Amino acid sequence: MPLTTPIDPPTRFTVTRTTDALWRVTFDNPPINLIDPTMIVELQGLLSEIERDDGPAVVVFDSADSDFFLAHYDVAADPSALDALPPAPTPFHHWANLLIRLTKSPAVTIAAIRGRARAAGSELALATDVRFASRERAVLGQFEVAFAAAPGGGPSARLPGIVGRGRALEILLGGEDFDGELAERYGYVNRALPDSELDEFVDAFAARVSRFDRLAVADVKRFVNAASLPDDDALAAEMDAFAAALARPATPALLERAFTHGFQTRSDVEFNLGAWVGELIAEPTTPTSG
Amino acid sequence: MPLTTPIDPPTRFTVTRTTDALWRVTFDNPPINLIDPTMIVELQGLLSEIERDDGPAVVVFDSADSDFFLAHYDVAADPSALDALPPAPTPFHHWANLLIRLTKSPAVTIAAIRGRARAAGSELALATDVRFASRERAVLGQFEVAFAAAPGGGPSARLPGIVGRGRALEILLGGEDFDGELAERYGYVNRALPDSELDEFVDAFAARVSRFDRLAVADVKRFVNAASLPDDDALAAEMDAFAAALARPATPALLERAFTHGFQTRSDVEFNLGAWVGELIAEPTTPTSG
Amino acid sequence: MPLTTPIDPPTRFTVTRTTDALWRVTFDNPPINLIDPTMIVELQGLLSEIERDDGPAVVVFDSADSDFFLAHYDVAADPSALDALPPAPTPFHHWANLLIRLTKSPAVTIAAIRGRARAAGSELALATDVRFASRERAVLGQFEVAFAAAPGGGPSARLPGIVGRGRALEILLGGEDFDGELAERYGYVNRALPDSELDEFVDAFAARVSRFDRLAVADVKRFVNAASLPDDDALAAEMDAFAAALARPATPALLERAFTHGFQTRSDVEFNLGAWVGELIAEPTTPTSG
């Protein structure tokens, strides 16, 4: 009976079942909460549990690391773990598939963002239903353009319906960091709360929603999804473009340079990545593809 | 000549013809401005007048009760008054039909929100063109989910295009009260004004627009409607789901409990309904349908 | 070799090539930066240069006049300069065509708004990708409705996806001025900055984006355009309605009256046009078309 076989405990996050109806998923993948193939596979397993008839009504995503909600995708990781999943056009498409599935989850998903949520980390937040952020500690951004790549996990399709066309273009083309306060002003997050109040606020909201009728919640999500979710085709096209960028010379060369400066480690580069990537292309030896 | 027969004066609101071009509709249905079948029938009659060639250019909706703009739908009311209207799939669909007609009105409609505008009251506000709110006294919300029902009057289709997907889901799934200031930050209302300035501000805006050319105003509404109104089918589907919820056991049982605590009276429950419904489901005897 | 023939230097704006990748277009058409047929022809020539393979990555639009970014269209101008362009249904449609082309430009376009950007001036800003405004000195608005015309350059189709349906209707039906602070609150501009910081902020953002990979930038624009640009047909319909208004009696009569008060000169009327047009229709001799 495969559907009821307990899956292995996840290694990239913990799942706390506060009640049957309310689960908390805490990302915990030191040193900086990179998203890697194993995390994608484990999140697909989690979604299978969430989608069960006795699954939770509400799932909160937070982080064990107050500096990093989810740093970004681990571009150095061995993709072989993804072989456990149904085939996809490229390894990267597994990420888009996961996010598409997440947006259609029967559960209400809430991102409680403390620390950095950049690139794929921002994309996961944008694929949840509701985003609350720490005013002092949240940092959101999509820095991919600085690595000569369009983001692949859907933000170009999702952001215009969340923050409007002009702010979407600024976020995606500037590749800068947005702190909690500015993210709220733009609508990038629902609300930024004082860091000392974020947990209590999220807990109260999540507990409240978890007590509501499941059919009513599912109806609301279905109607709002119909009014606001982008087509799967649009999301696949974004990932095609991201994968194509990775196959051009510019992106790997830029990544290589970034690694020599501490990219993907708990370094100043990762703490201040939005500012740092603004200088990345300026160095004279940068290859260009354009 | 039925089209020119004067209709009976409405009993649920008053109509003040400030000028031929500017009408004010003041909801006045004590004790808390519930929306009932008679109000729906009277509002349909009002729309017939508005749609006449010599109808007004601008209609302001406000309330005679500074605590309640429109409390919500009167679920205890005898629906027989609705028999005066063309047939609809259920009594509730008359409400959706009214709001669809309101959004397509040739007149510019303005909601001046002071007091509570919850559930169907919020839905009416969302079906007007422009929403101004009292910063201190306005309260908006969609609490239906706490009664095990998805809202039926269109907010799941309308809110994503007004406040964005994430904030729409928070409003609809949390079922909480939004005060004037937060409603403005979210875009739920155009603007929240100090209570002492609201009337003068709305009057000036309405008078100004009422002096503008009718063809130009109609062109603008037509183009903005084409760019932003949801399909009628999407709105009908929401009302189907609402009616289905009312036919399940959970919603009537929750309503019955609420009535014992003062629901639909001028009570603490109605004053603080957003907070109160958060505890409604938590009681152990609550039936669930999920 | 027509493609490489240098075009005549523009007379309505200057083009500063800060780098090959970053151009600055400074509107300079005294006395108040009206948009006229010659400016439209020159902007079409500019777009041809921008669209060349060696065109810029980023184009900033600003103004030599700190009181007027772009006042509005010069309704008194001889349209014959437009004969240089491919045929269009009416002279006005050349403006819509220009804006449609601008939104699809391969370059990232940034409006740095200081001074008044009303009617067609606002429309140009709305057709750029990113809008930054002076908090103290920017003024945006669409006053056409006060002249008995629906705006023709796309704002009815664009604004709902930028500021939401309710705020779009307020902007278009009220015809009032929006200062920088309110424009930011509504999302009409991305951000309003203190006037003393605007230039440095825009320069830094533009220079940063101009260093990024051209293919990545083009991918992002393509995806965001697919998710957020209105159909060309919707934009053409708006211009049809604007041209029809100009052919009715009301609009020319209102314009004639405005000219006697200083319209299109560096006058109090132009400085405070949003307020002034609110009184325009109230005069008893105004013809009406409705």
Task: Note the total helix count of chain A.
Answer: 12
Largest sheet properties of chain A? 8 strands, mixed
Helix-strand pattern of chain A: EEHEEHEHEHHEHEHHHHHH
For the residues shown, what is the average pLDDT of chain A? 94
List the uncertain runs of chain A.
1-6, 284-290
Total strand count of chain A, please? 8
**Percent in strands of chain A:** 15-25%
Question: How are the SSEs placed, and which strands pair?
Answer:
Three copies of one chain form a homotrimer.
Chain A: E1 13-17, E2 22-27, H1 37-50, E3 58-63, E4 68-70, H2 93-103, E5 108-118, H3 120-127, E6 130-141, H4 155-163, H5 165-174, E7 178-179, H6 180-186, E8 191-193, H7 195-210, H8 214-228, H9 232-246, H10 250-260, H11 268-271, H12 273-280
Parallel strand pairs in A: 2-3, 3-5, 4-5, 5-6, 6-8
Antiparallel strand pairs in A: 1-2, 6-7
Helix pairs in contact in A: 1-2, 2-3, 2-9, 4-5
Q: Could you give a quick summary of the protein structure above?
A:
3 copies of one chain form a homotrimer. Chain A is α/β, with parallel strands linked by helices and 290 residues long. The first copy, chain A, has helices spanning 37-50, 93-103, 120-127, 155-163, 165-174, 180-186, 195-210, 214-228, 232-246, 250-260, 268-271, 273-280; strands at residues 13-17, 22-27, 58-63, 68-70, 108-118, 130-141, 178-179, 191-193.
